[in-house]
Write a structure and sequence with these properties.
This protein is of the alpha/beta class.
């Protein structure tokens, strides 16, 4: 669910207020007027009409198998396998067998959370396989841990498809201490890729900078991503945050984010509040109240513009549910009335409004499910054969998918 808002725009006249301001000499030279409510409604309509713009995994059926291509590698699996099976196996391959094998000998409280999510997914799969049912299992309750695992696996695949998954980032994902920050950077990067941006990670160790440059139709943005660390979750020590302490508490993260130098490009700040779901009688979850208070305290003006032109708050909180049904995620966007630099293209704004609305979308999963149903209706699906995948001589070697979590 989304809530697109602009804190200072509710009382703003529709005409350009610059006509009633003091002479230009009294105005900051680097200020740019943001978008108003009328513009926001128009751009939201454009966003709603957008479809998935990200990379797709090429898939085909041949010789009784499903063959998928991820850049220079072919992956073979039985026709009965799902796209989620492929996502998890691909994640295992990318992170590497040694990483998962090293977790098996550790106590659970010392194991990496990715391995714990994988174990939960495997246990759920085993439980479902033992339950009496007729026909193939096509759906099951989505547990919090499984949702986290699938979201990570999908993000990794999207970045792999566009060759934007550097080794250093993978090392941080494998590291318990660095995992949470790296995980959110991967999520944000994959979200930008999914709405059509090209991303380029920034590697400049000598000064503070954003995570990556996002480009859409030759318009460039700098993106900074921060995730709030909470006790007792994602390898953090302490007792988990309770609903009594539900506060977004984004001030410090925001201040650290806007310290980054965007090099004159428009800046997007993404912050994950990382809070459990709490019951609320309002349409918005309770943590948004403290977030709105933070926005109300800020008053960007033409003489003191905001450093970012867009701030997006997310709450990827599925890990709090663990072995229970995964809750829905929340996000909302804020566009300051005045900013240092802003995009000019409508499509850029529409893509940003769509950024987390379509997060985690897997068009291949829907397409493959439809194809599987069609094949079953005509009796075309049978056991996978042992014949090799087709391809010209010298083509990339095929990767045969094991049944996870076997390593």
């Amino acid at each position: 669910m989304r809530d697109s808002l602009s804190p200072q725009e509710s009382a703003r006249p529709e005409r350009d207020p610059a006509s009633s301001l003091a002479p230009e000499t009294q105005v900051a030279k680097s200020s740019v007027h943001g978008i108003g409510l009328v513009e926001l409604e128009r751009l939201q309509a454009l966003a709603d009409a957008r479809t998935y713009r990200g990379p797709r995994c090429v898939t085909a059926v041949a010789f009784g198998k499903r063959i998928r291509c991820v850049r220079d590698r072919f992956w073979e699996s039985p026709l009965t396998g799902t796209f989620n099976d492929f996502l998890i196996t691909h994640l295992q391959h990318v992170l590497g067998v040694p990483f998962f094998q090293a977790q098996q000998s550790l106590d659970r409280d010392q194991q990496h959370v990715i391995f714990q999510w994988l174990q939960t997914a495997a246990e759920q799969r085993e439980t479902l396989s033992r339950e009496p049912h007729t026909g193939p299992i096509i759906s099951a309750p989505l547990l919090g841990s499984v949702r986290e695992l699938l979201a990570l696996a999908n993000d990794v695949l999207r970045l792999k498809l566009v060759d934007r998954l550097p080794a250093a980032l993978l090392d941080r994902l494998r590291d318990r201490v660095a995992f949470q920050g790296a995980r959110y950077e991967v999520a944000v990067a994959a979200a930008f890729v999914g709405v059509g941006f090209r991303i380029d990670w920034i590697h400049e160790p000598l000064h503070k900078h954003g995570e990556f440059v996002a480009t859409l139709r030759d318009e460039q943005l700098v993106v900074e991503a921060k995730s709030k660390h909470r006790p007792g979750t994602l390898h953090e020590l302490g007792d988990p945050t309770t609903s009594v302490k539900l506060k977004a508490d984004v001030g410090q993260l925001y201040n650290r984010a806007v310290e980054k130098d965007p090099g004159g490009k428009p800046l997007v700040v993404c912050i994950d509040v990382n809070l459990p779901v709490a019951s609320s009688t309002a349409e918005m979850p309770r943590w948004t109240e403290s977030a709105r208070h933070f926005f109300d305290q800020r008053s960007p003006s033409r003489t003191a513009p905001a450093k970012e032109f867009c701030m997006i708050l997310t709450n990827f909180n599925w890990h709090f549910a663990a072995d229970s049904r995964a809750p829905g995620g929340w996000h909302f966007n804020s566009f300051p009335e005045w900013t240092v630099a802003a995009p000019k293209n409508d499509d850029t704004y529409a893509a940003l409004l769509n950024l987390f609305e379509r997060y985690g979308e897997c068009p291949e999963s829907i397409e493959e499910s439809m194809l599987r149903s069609a094949m079953e209706s005509v009796g075309a699906e049978g056991p996978a054969s042992d014949r090799p995948s087709p391809g010209a001589e010298g083509a990339p070697a095929a990767v045969h998918l094991p049944r996870w979590p076997a390593l």
